[in-house]
Design brief:
Helix content: 40-55%
Largest sheet: 7 strands, mixed
Order of helices and strands: HHHHHEHHEEHHHHHHEHEHHEEHEHHEE
Structural class: alpha/beta
Shape: globular
CATH architecture of the largest domain: 3-Layer(aba) Sandwich
């Protein structure tokens, strides 16, 4: 494609994809695309997006960002990127002081003077923070210094697990990532992949890995660990991790098949499996604190029937010290491998390898990183974006690259490409079978290697 045709091509991608989005909304029980001013959820908000709709949205996001970067002066675009830190800091203020909860009391609008009284914030500073967020489409200023919630800010209500996720990213993650350059410049830490030599360790002063901090540091680390556990429920919704519930053929496993959710936290995916596939027997394994939180707080509220029917078992595990419950049909690991450097990943998968039976499958749900350069289609692990978009959809799939840097800052780990997963499996004695495309994430399937045929 010539340089002259790129702007028109990007505009066409946006136009064509917008028509697809409108068509999908037109088929719903509320046949319209909601306005940003709406505060009531749309029926499609809680549904798993169809692949065509999800792809159209990613194209729109990527093409709009690429079009803006193409037509604006480079200095204009780069300076705006420098200043992106202020949005996340303002979000932290909104979450910390529960401003969305306060605004919910007055759906018609609340003046900053009243917001200040209810939150303890100095009113003019609160107004300036809210105005920046409203300009970024979070909250709405209905008249001067009078703000209301909107379609995005309602996601920040303290009752929504996304609020816990937002506090995680805008608190310990952001404060750690600020130190990334300083850590990278350190002669020892900059080249280390140790989970104890990270920007998080430098920020917190804590000498052990992040997840030990979440379990053992009392009260601060334990409080943040519980918050992180709730936030992962919000992360699962935002990233449509529940696609695995519908895209993988769980029914084919048969009645009474056992699924071990290894390192599953409070059991976000297990909860959804329990509701969608009551024929399965589930085992949730994680560190003791998370298992107690799941057993005593989350599951009795979210899925008491699974407890009553004994379809769920809660078993603590340190997957570096022991193997999961043996002989299960499926061992499912979501967002586990990305938490650790290669050597530890091999240790985790080797522990699973010791537990599995010949019929078992190992399913690893993670982001599958794509390069930003275009490759022949038959060499791409998943379908590439249409030209002239970046082949990895650019901003349309930026979350996986943001998370890759999150892993670097907090754990000295990373998101990986498909060849990386294949090599890790082989090192642990597992054979790669298939990559299931779940939309935003992928599902890497392993099994025991096939026995070599006899040549007698």
């Amino acid at each position: 494609m010539t340089r002259r045709g790129q702007i028109s091509a990007l505009v066409k991608l946006i136009s064509d994809s917008s028509k697809i989005v409108e068509a999908h909304y037109a088929k719903s029980s509320k046949p319209y695309v909601p306005s940003l001013d709406d505060t009531e959820p749309h029926p499609l908000d809680d549904q798993l997006a169809e692949k065509e709709l999800r792809t159209a949205v990613q194209i729109i996001e990527g093409a709009c960002a690429q079009l803006s970067a193409t037509v604006a002066r480079p200095s204009h675009t780069v300076v705006n990127k420098f200043m992106g830190i202020f949005e996340s800091n303002c979000l932290n203020v909104a979450l910390t002081f529960k401003i969305p909860d306060v605004l919910k009391e007055k759906p018609t609008g609340m003046h900053i003077s009243e917001i200040g009284k209810k939150t303890g914030l100095e009113e003019r500073k609160a107004g300036r923070i809210l105005r920046l967020l409203a300009t970024k489409h979070v909250f709405r200023e209905v008249s001067e210094n009078v703000f209301v919630n909107n379609r995005l800010s309602t996601q920040l209500l303290s009752t929504n697990p996304l609020s816990s996720l937002g506090l995680h990213f805008t608190d310990e993650v952001q404060k750690s990532t600020v130190l990334l350059s300083e850590v990278l410049a350190d002669k020892a830490w900059g080249h280390s992949y140790s989970p104890t030599q990270t920007p998080f360790n430098k920020y917190s002063g804590y000498p052990e890995p992040l997840f030990i901090y979440y379990e053992k540091d009392v009260p601060r680390g334990a409080e943040l660990g519980a918050r992180f556990g709730l936030g992962m429920m919000g992360w699962g919704d935002a990233s449509e991790a529940k696609a695995v519930i519908h895209e993988f053929p769980w029914k084919d496993l048969g009645n009474g098949a056992t699924v071990c959710d290894v390192g599953g936290g409070i059991g976000n995916i297990s909860l959804q499996l329990a509701k969608a596939h009551p024929n399965l027997r589930l085992i949730l394994q994680d560190l003791p604190e998370r298992i107690q939180q799941a057993k005593n707080e989350v599951w009795p509220k979210e899925c008491p029937e699974a407890i009553a029917e004994r379809r769920i078992t809660f078993e603590p595990i340190d997957f570096f010290a022991s193997s999961p419950v043996p002989g299960c049909d499926v061992y499912y690991l979501k967002n586990i491998i990305h938490d650790w450097p290669d050597a530890d990943c091999i240790k985790i998968l080797s522990g699973v390898r010791k537990a599995i039976a010949p019929h078992s499958r190992v399913l690893v749900q993670e982001y599958i990183l794509q390069p930003a350069n275009r490759v022949p289609e038959d060499k791409a692990p998943v379908k590439q974006a249409p030209e002239p978009l970046l082949p990895n959809y650019g901003v349309g799939r930026i979350r996986q690259y943001n998370l890759d840097l999150d892993m670097m800052a907090m754990l000295n780990s990373q998101e990986r490409r498909l060849p990386d997963f294949i090599k890790l499996g082989e090192a642990a004695g597992l054979e790669f079978v298939k990559l299931w495309d779940l939309g935003e994430t992928g599902l890497v399937e392993y099994r025991l290697p096939k026995a070599p045929r006899s040549h007698l």
